[in-house]
Specification:
about 375 residues, alpha/beta, FAD/NAD(P)-binding domain, four-stranded parallel beta sheet, 20 strands, about 25% strand, globular, binds flavin-adenine dinucleotide, binds ubiquinone-1, FAD/NAD(P)-binding domain-containing protein, FAD/NAD-bd_sf, FAD/NAD-binding_dom, Sulphide_quinone_reductase
């Protein structure tokens, strides 16, 4: 059939954590997931992959393995939305109709916005942890580095996991220190890369502030880790669902669309004004499912409200980490554990590297992990 109770757009962290519960609750084939990719990645592992502490394989599962059993997988991408007709149009031209729509298509990585990046990525010291195609190159280039100029970049756009551009810098620095080449190495972290010149091995940056604002700076590199500019997916930007910045325009507490009542969104493609992480989605998905199931089942369940929870496990070395947990709405810490998580610790490093991936595959993707809020309350932390 080309009509479903719920259509979920995207089978990433957000889409699957919602679709699992909905399919389980609403029954066989009432939920469709539109997802073009054959593979599902646990992207938070890529910081570890880029530094050689995990393999790419460990971050990867066949989409067919993680797709909820009772959901209908539509293996195509959504090309456009028509929310006044309750339909989405697929790339193959087919229309699918829905009673309720959940948009979870992630953020778009705009590789092409940096001149020469697509053709230089993965070659001659230029790499990025933000792609499955290049993340293993990061480790290869870190190991091959013999000293010189190492550049790490951060764009001026919103990105997913705002800490990731610097985590890999700390891990690379540690390896170069251990290799005894630290004193021959200059490490810089810069914003707003605009061009790579592979022949002269130079990187060009826009100057964003100060007297030289509006000019560019050109720096030589021997190692270059790029975090590319990102933004709302084009097909969302072009649709009636988007706000002025291109994100799916939802209420920041209920996750319901501000104009179309039967539409919800969560995760990186949403307008939710918090930092874009998988950790944030643990709390968002619980709220969304509660509110959407309230609509569908017509019960008088209380409306749930998202508080902006997000987390950045800031790896600072191969045995330590700062587990930042906070509300993006208030800026206040929301630490789970009854100890000071702002200290670098092995325990939180181990948790992030060895335990949370298991929670992700075995519970979050099955719709059974609502995030650490209940443990935070249990431990009585602030
Ligand atoms: P995604 O998981 O990216 O999924 C989006 C899905 O939508 C994809 O499967 C895609 O194929 C599909 N899609 C795209 N376009 C269409 C379309 N037109 N039609 C249908 N489907 C479509 N988070 C943390 O919590 N902690 C961390 O330590 C952390 N570290 C990170 C490090 C790196 C290097 C990276 C890259 C990310 C990191 N993240 C981290 C962020 C985290 O991975 C994302 O926030 C999370 O995956 C977002 O989930 P999502 O479902 O919104 O998007
Ligand atoms: C989390 O639940 C989660 O999703 C599974 C992450 O995604 C990678 C996280 O980074 C973090 C920190 C959490 C929070 C979980 C605990 C136990 C603090």
């Amino acid at each position: 059939p080309s009509s479903y109770k719920v259509v979920v757009v995207g089978g990433g962290s957000a889409g699957l954590s919602v679709a699992s519960t909905l399919a389980e609750t609403l029954g066989n084939k009432s939920v469709a997931v539109v997802e073009p990719s054959d593979v599902h990645y646990y992207q938070p592992l890529w910081t570890f992959v880029g530094s050689g502490l995990k393999t790419l394989d460990e971050s990867k599962m066949a989409m067919s393995e993680v797709m909820p059993e009772k959901a209908q997988w539509i293996k195509d991408s959504v090309a456009s939305f028509d929310p006044t007709k309750n339909t989405v149009v697929l790339a193959n031209g087919e229309s699918i109709s829905y009673d309720y729509l959940v948009v979870a298509a992630g953020i778009q990585v705009n590789w092409g916005k940096i001149k020469n990046l697509p053709e230089t990525l993965g070659k001659n010291g230029v790499t990025s942890n933000y792609s499955a195609q290049s993340v293993e190159k990061t480790h290869e280039f870190i190991k091959a580095f013999k000293g010189g100029n190492a550049l790490f970049t951060m764009p001026s756009t919103p990105i997913k996991c705002a800490g990731a551009p610097q985590k890999i810098m700390y891990l690379a620095e540690e390896q170069w220190r251990k290799a005894g080449i630290r004193d021959q190495t200059k490490i810089n972290y810069f914003t707003d890369l605009t061009e790579i010149r592979p022949d002269s091995k130079e990187a060009v940056f826009n100057v964003l502030a100060g007297d030289a604002k509006g000019t560019t700076v050109t720096l030589p590199y021997d190692f270059l880790h790029v975090t590319p500019p990102m933004g709302a997916p084009d097909f969302i930007k072009a649709s009636p669902l988007s706000n002025a910045d291109g994100w799916v325009d939802v209420n920041k507490e209920t996750l319901r669309h501000n104009k179309f009542n039967n539409v919800y969104a969560l995760g990186d493609c949403s307008s939710l004004p918090t930092s874009k992480t998988a950790a944030a989605i643990t709390a968002q998905s619980a709220v969304l499912k509660n509110n959407l199931l309230g609509d569908i089942l017509g019960d008088s369940k209380e409306v749930a409200k998202y508080d902006g929870y997000t987390s950045c496990p800031l790896v600072t070395g191969s045995d330590k980490l700062i587990l930042a947990e906070f509300s993006g709405y208030t800026g206040q810490p929301q630490e789970t554990f009854p100890f000071d998580q702002s200290k670098e610790r092995f325990s939180t490093y181990f948790l992030t590297k060895e335990i949370i991936p298991d929670i992700y595959w075995k519970a979050m993707l099955k719709g059974k992990w609502d995030g650490p809020a209940k443990y935070r309350k249990l431990f009585g932390a602030a």
